[in-house]
Amino acid sequence: MKLHIAEMLEGQKPHISFHTPGHKRAGADITELSYSDCLLSPTGVIARAERDIAEILGAERSFLLTDGSTSGVFSMLAAISGRRVALPAFSHPSVFHALGFLQKEAVLIPCGVEAGIPLQPKEEEIERALSNADALLLTSPDYYGFFPPLAFARELTLRVGKPFLIDGAHGSHLHFTERHAGKFADMWVDGVHKSLPALTQGAVVSARKGFEEALGKSVKLFRTTSPSYPIMASVEYAVKYPRNEAIERAAERFKMQHGCVKNDDWTKILVPIGPNAPAVGVALEEEGVYAEFCDGNYLLFYLSPCTKEEDLKKLGALLRRFPRGKIMGEGRIPMYSEEP
Predict the structure, then answer these.
(1) How many other CB atoms sit within 10 Å of the CB of residue 316?
(2) Mean pLDDT, to the nearest integer, of 270-282?
(3) Are 167 and 24 in contact (CB under 8 A)?
(4) Is 285 helix (H, G, I), strand (E, B) or coil?
(5) HSE of 185 in the Cβ direction (CA atoms, 13 Å)?
(6) pLDDT above 70 covers what percent of the chain?
(7) Which of 112-121, 239-248, 251-260, 278-287 has the lowest mean pLDDT?
(8) Secondary structure class of 153 (helix, strand, coil)
(9) Which of these ranges, 2-6, 59-63, 140-144, 334-338, has the smallest mean pLDDT?
(10) For the residues of 48-107, what is the DSSP string, one character each?
(11) C-alpha 117, offset from chain centre
């Protein structure tokens, strides 16, 4: 598929810059010129890129973001008319910041913790919270690689006639699958840079038919007026990047072989270490291996279609050096190496 923004950047003619940015150098980092389109009112290469992205993501409209998923979260919440939003207590800080800024109210959905891991909300808790709210916002997948009951949430919100939003910041790689946010939500965010090969801050916010006009208006309030063309080009590239089923299979094998938590997302390898997890994280960094995070019990290793199988093998060899301890927290999560 054609890469509209990248091809425009590659085809630029040399010119004298009497425009921003101040470095005055030719290259990909340009401003909105006659040939490079305008992010807030696109009619050229940006418009074509957004149309392609919307088709891939199953949206009526998709909007490029160079401000990260945060601006998409703000835009979604501004696009709904209701004041009360049902959402899990573990939602991203940007959700709470947006609600405060927009003078909307959070209706918290109770979520448990098992083996130190926050759990996705249960169906009955979602329904109870939504009965006191005007819209529903779920996180899918969460940082630990788990999904909420998406089909239930979609059916419920359609039945009661309330908008369904998804913070899919960690699920951009899922657009090949039936678990992608676009299969369920009225509006959703893809944090493309997190799990696809895009530059940091590259994201997309999208809407189904019926919500695209309101989202189009609100996104103009929160997107920058000075977008980064390298970021936009990288988002288009990343969304069009081919699926890597070989690394997906390798990731699932790795989880089984190394006693990882049995989660639902191949990109998130969650290794239960116990109280020694911070020290193990430091030791791995001394070997040149950096985890996504350590929460005191677990180390999470974040993959993407660009992850190399040889890097997984190195990680596995290093992990075998370290003993595992007891997870600090009540309950436990089933492991891949155990019977369901």
Answers:
(1) 14
(2) 96
(3) no
(4) helix
(5) 27
(6) 96
(7) 112-121
(8) helix
(9) 334-338
(10) HHHHHHHHHHT-SEEEEESS-HHHHHHHHHHH---SEEEEETT--HHHHHHHHHTT-EEE
(11) 19
pLDDT, position 328? 79
Whether the CB-CB separation of 265 and 235 falls below 8 Å is answered with no
Give the per-residue pLDDT at 332: 43
For the record, the structure tokens of 166 come out as 């998804």
Tell me what pLDDT residue 321 has: 95
Q: Work out the angle at residue 189's Cα, subtended by the Cα atoms of residues 183 and 195, and round it to the nearest 5 degrees.
A: 90
Q: Which two tokens stand for residue 219?
A: 């996104």
Backbone angles phi, psi at 62, to 5 degrees: -125, 145
Q: Find the distance separating the first CA and the last CA of the chain, reported in whole Å.
A: 41
CA-CA distance, 261 to 265, in Å (whole number)?
11
Q: CA dist 312 to 146, 262, 302, 318, 322, Å?
A: 21, 17, 11, 10, 16
Please give the structure tokens belonging to residue 98.
Answer: 């947006």
- What lies within 8 Å, CB to CB, of 297 at 6+ separation is 115, 116, 272, 273, 274, 275, 277, 327, 328, 329
Has residue 165 got a pLDDT over 60?
A: yes
Residue corresponding to tokens 């050096």: 321
